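Re: the 256-residue chain
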Amino acid sequence: MFTKHGPTVRELAVQALSSTERGYDLLAPKFDETPYRTPDRVLDAVTRALRPLGPFDTGLDVCCGTGAGVGVLRRVCRERVTGVDFSAGMLAEARAAFPDRAAYPAGGEGPAVAGGGGPSVHWVRADARALPFAPAFDVALSFGAFGHFLPEERFGLFAEVYGSLRPGGQFVFPLGAPPPVGSRAYWSLFGFDAAMRLRNALWRPKFIMYYRTFRLGDVLEDLTQAGFVVRLLPLTELGLRPDGSPRARLVVATRE
């Protein structure tokens, strides 16, 4: 699962016994060498699906981690991109990949250049459950972070994103279809969540990460209650299930 440059078993054990924030501070230098980083094919699919929804001037990557989502936003935004995360370690890695206030060429290709025509990049350390932004963004996105929020926190998270968007702004994120009941993937996720619940029942501080608590029906209900108008776009390039339905969809929640 990991490259030779990824974390050791001991390092993963120390991370797993830490708080969520501290665990990611520890994992940050090697995070991109783990399977936890969002795959490039998902990032590319979301980028292509986002372009027709624009144009966008400003973008926000919620729970940006090491900056994978910022890389998407700088391809579709024209003026400013902001990444926000509560882990200082993850932000440090993101800053190294995307220097503060560096300008990127239009279209997001090539190295950062002074005076380039693309967006500037900024970083903010904050908890996504209390975002420190006025309604200033045209688009917000997030990759792979929702398992770190308990179901009862989800509405508050969505409300914070809503409050950070301009009227007409869009909150987008990919959502994969659940694995078939009884499949290897199903039991793998079931086992992980069960182990995590046991760990959090027996050990403090808690490490919050669950794979099976972000269900489409509940997500749509919480987005709607937060004030969004929601639609789903199929990400067909990520594949189809045996019944012909997409393996992943792009959730597009608009602040009207």
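Helices lie at 9-16, 20-27, 40-50, 68-76, 88-97, 151-164, 184-202, 216-225.
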